[in-house]
TrEMBL record:
<dbReference type="InterPro" id="IPR036013">
    <property type="entry name" value="Band_7/SPFH_dom_sf"/>
</dbReference>
<keyword id="KW-0496">Mitochondrion</keyword>
<feature type="domain" description="Band 7">
    <location>
        <begin position="1"/>
        <end position="143"/>
    </location>
</feature>
<feature type="region of interest" description="Disordered">
    <location>
        <begin position="283"/>
        <end position="333"/>
    </location>
</feature>
<dbReference type="InterPro" id="IPR032435">
    <property type="entry name" value="STML2-like_C"/>
</dbReference>
<dbReference type="Pfam" id="PF01145">
    <property type="entry name" value="Band_7"/>
</dbReference>
<comment type="similarity">
    <text>Belongs to the band 7/mec-2 family.</text>
</comment>
<protein>
    <recommendedName>
        <fullName>Band 7 domain-containing protein</fullName>
    </recommendedName>
</protein>
<dbReference type="InterPro" id="IPR001972">
    <property type="entry name" value="Stomatin_HflK_fam"/>
</dbReference>
<feature type="compositionally biased region" description="Basic and acidic residues">
    <location>
        <begin position="310"/>
        <end position="319"/>
    </location>
</feature>
<dbReference type="InterPro" id="IPR050710">
    <property type="entry name" value="Band7/mec-2_domain"/>
</dbReference>
<dbReference type="Pfam" id="PF16200">
    <property type="entry name" value="Band_7_C"/>
</dbReference>
<dbReference type="GO" id="GO:0005739">
    <property type="term" value="C:mitochondrion"/>
</dbReference>
<feature type="compositionally biased region" description="Basic and acidic residues">
    <location>
        <begin position="291"/>
        <end position="303"/>
    </location>
</feature>
<dbReference type="GO" id="GO:0007005">
    <property type="term" value="P:mitochondrion organization"/>
</dbReference>
<dbReference type="InterPro" id="IPR001107">
    <property type="entry name" value="Band_7"/>
</dbReference>
<dbReference type="GO" id="GO:0016020">
    <property type="term" value="C:membrane"/>
</dbReference>
Length: 333
């Protein structure tokens, strides 16, 4: 008769006609309530348009029926006011970044106020956030500038690293090239030193062999050397005109015999010095047999006389041989 009697449980229920009447029917399942779009101002004075979805469930049918006139409407209004309050505490950047935290705060505020209504709020989800066009354009420019800044930083870092790598590569290349050049110069110097040493040893052995041959051959070897010197002397004059435009020749170039005699005279002087050396070496041996110091001048004079006669005869003989060889060579040409 207009007074609450009991809550009918699910299943079969018996009612007395006229006396009993079902006043409210509540579903205990989770329900989704759409929160209409509304305006909210952020902490940095940006006006936003937001809408969302609220998920609720009735946990006490009695309170949901008699605790509030329209539980769904009351929950919707509470969600809107709570959302405005939470948005006003955040800046635009935090609203966009902290949507999960914002949804959690709105759900906690609704549950605290809706305990007496027999309804619990399971979660709240912000569906859309609409900012003014000017703010959106500014955000786009900011994002573009930030991206450009990052791109330039990355580009500069890449160029810097590239320059460092190139410089390091050039440094290593120069170091390796210098080390290679150093090794090459050391090897070349070692090779040249060894070549000079080998050539010097070979020259020394050749000189020793020539000296031994001259010593053993005596008159024949000396005549052959005289002939070789004369031929080289004549051949050198033949090559003067081929090596340059200016030619310096002696005054008696037309006198071939005189040129050869001059060459032989030079060799004769050398041979004379050699003979004197040999004689000087042989004198101490004779002195050891008791001839005394007075015999030295006489032996030296006698050796010089013999040497002069022998040298003169040898020079004439070599000159004749050279003239004959020169004449034969001229006829062949």
């Amino acid at each position: 008769m207009g007074r609450f009697s009991r809550i009918l449980q699910p299943g079969l229920a018996i009612l007395v006609p006229v006396v009993d009447r079902i006043a409210y029917v509540k579903s205990l399942k989770e329900a989704a309530i759409e929160i209409p779009s509304q305006s909210a101002i952020t902490a940095d004075n940006v006006t936003l348009e937001l809408d969302g979805v609220l998920y609720t469930r009735v946990f006490d049918p009695y309170k949901a029926s008699y605790g509030v006139e329209d539980a769904e409407y009351a929950i919707s209004q509470l969600a809107q006011t709570t959302m405005r309050s939470e948005i006003g505490q955040l800046t635009l950047d935090h609203v966009l970044k902290e949507r999960a935290a914002l949804n959690t705060n709105i759900t906690a505020a609704i549950n605290e106020a809706a305990q007496d209504w027999g309804v619990t709020c399971l979660r709240y989800e912000i569906r859309d956030i609409h900012a003014p066009e000017g703010v959106v354009e500014a955000m786009h420019r900011q994002v573009t500038a930030e991206r450009s800044k990052r791109a330039e930083i990355l580009d500069s870092e890449g160029q810097r690293q590239s320059a460092i790598n190139i410089a390091e590569g050039r440094k290593q290349s120069v170091i390796l090239a210098s080390e290679a050049l150093k090794s090459e110069q050391i090897n070349i110097a070692s090779g040249e030193a060894e070549a000079i040493l080998v050539k010097a040893k070979a020259t020394a052995r050749g000189i020793e062999a020539v000296a031994e041959a001259i010593k053993e051959g005596e008159h024949s070897a000396q005549a052959a050397i005289s002939l070789s010197v004369a031929e080289k002397y004549v051949d050198a004059f033949g090559k003067l005109a081929k090596e340059g435009t200016a030619v310096v020749v002696p005054g008696n170039v037309g006198d071939i015999s005189g040129m050869i005699a001059s060459a032989m005279a030079v060799y004769g002087k050398v041979s004379e010095g050699t003979a004197r050396t040999v004689a000087a070496r042989s004198l101490p041996h004779h002195n050891s047999h008791g001839h005394g110091h007075d015999a030295e001048p006489r032996a030296e004079s006698r050796a010089e006389g013999l040497q002069s006669g022998a040298e003169k005869e040898k020079t004439d003989e070599v000159a004749r041989s050279v003239l004959e060889s020169f004449e034969q060579t001229r006829q062949k040409r």
